[in-house]
Amino acid sequence: MKILYAGKTKSPIMTYPNHFHRSWEILYSIDGRGDAWIDGKCVPFEKGTMMLLPPYTTHYKTSAEGYMDGSLMVSGLNIPDPEPITGNDDDAETGLRLFELILEAFYRGEEAQIMYESLTDALVSFLQGRVNISKKKNPAVERMEVLLAEHISDTEFHLTESLNHTGYGRNYFRKLFADATGETPLHYLHRLRITFAKQEISRRQGYCRLQEIATLAGFTDPYYFSRVFKKMEGISPREYQHSVREEGILDHADLLEKSYHQHCEIDQMNFEENKELEEWV
Which residues make Cβ contacts (< 8 Å) with residue 116, sequence separation at least 6? Predict the structure, then answer.
């Protein structure tokens, strides 16, 4: 998954021409109300309406009073049976908070790529959960998901302390969270952090200090990081690091081999051209 564009309108728009994109688009209605036309179907929108539009979905919006949108262009979303979906933000404006965090990380550049891609995954999951109001998660669970996504790299984040501020008993909230997500809060956080760690190791092509990766992924104890990593991935971070390095070496070898064959082809072409020229002369 990769974000191609992230931004928002600077002034109200009355209408926007019918168009489509070759990538996925996530729209968040920051202000205003009106009608959106998606593949010929009218969908009313208001402040807080979110839309997930697959590639090549024709759409446009109109508003008598003007509207303002936030937009994310995303490639590589793995969603089976893609179709346009819409949903409204919750009372805590969780969707808006995620969107603002994504913008902030995106503007920081490549150094924050893994962070804003992880936040985008969280936003897509949140939107999918808001499509059917009968299936919506408990607001406290949604807030916890956002909180965990915000603190992937925070070594000073204390999950137990956060659980004490959910408005529920810790054990009861763990059950609520597990029922809604299929994971306990701790497992959910570990999954986010280990995924982040794997992406960091891959981004550096395996040439990194694992203690540094552990810290970046929010772990203060590298040995605990290693245990959690192996429990979730089936291999140790050191083994994963070696596999990434070997893959990089193989990729580099492939490039060298391709380059060699290209030079051979060029030399052969030059030889044949010179031979033809000598025969012609």
Answer: 3, 6, 101, 102, 105, 106
Q: Rounded to whole angstroms, how far apart are CA atoms 268 and 107? A: 48
- Report the distance separating Cα 164 and Cα 170, nearest Å: 6
Rounded average pLDDT per 10-residue block, the chain, 281 residues: 86 86 92 86 87 89 89 84 84 89 85 79 83 62 89 93 91 88 88 88 88 94 94 89 76 44 43 41 33
DSSP helix/strand/coil, 272: helix
DSSP structure class, residue 19:
B
Which structure tokens are listed for 156? 């000073």
Separation between Cα atoms, residue 200 and residue 223, nearest integer Å:
18
Host H or E run for residue 237: helix 237-280
How would you classify the pairing of strands 34-38 and 2-8? unpaired
Alpha carbon distance 141, 175 (integer Å): 10
Output the CA–CA distances (angstroms, integers) from residue 258 to 199, 251, 262, in the order listed. Answer: 27, 11, 6
Task: Tell which residue, 14, 23, 63, has the closest CA to residue 43.
Answer: 63
**Pairing outcome for strands 24-31 and 85-88:** unpaired
What span, in angstroms and rounded, lies between the C-alpha atoms of 92 and 98? 11
DSSP helix, strand, coil percent of the chain (3-state; round to 5): 55, 20, 25
**Cα 164 from Cα 12, distance rounded (Å):** 41
Q: List the structure tokens of 64.
A: 């008598």
Predicted TM-score (pTM) of the model is 0.50
